[in-house]
Amino acid sequence: MKLRAIEEGPKxxxxxxxxxxxxxxxxxxxxxxxAYTHMVLRASTKRLPLEVVYVDERIEKxxxxxxxLYFDGARTTExxxxxxxxxxERWPIGxxxxxxxxxVDPTATPDAGAPVTK
Length: 118
Description:
Layout: E1 2-8, E2 15-18, E3 28-33, E4 36-41, E5 47-53, E6 65-71, E7 74-81, E8 90-97, E9 102-103
Antiparallel strand pairs: 1-2, 1-5, 3-4, 5-8, 6-7, 8-9
């Protein structure tokens, strides 16, 4: 799986991605430690969409992906994707409000019953 943060640019098609494959130090830092991916988002007043792109198939009730958000040392959100996923499928986690560290678009999480997008 690949964890990505996406910054919307001033123009409609000017999105900046930050991930392990596409490092953008001005937006985030991404490191892996074993099976864990750690992303540190730079402080800002923006709202950043987060998503996971799967690189292999995930079966329902099999190994799952969980995302935890922390702000000032306290966990603000935890959500997990328990659905079947095909390779290259996306899980839109939601939008992180950078001023609070909270996920402000909970309808984007599978736990909330959102539709699966590819």
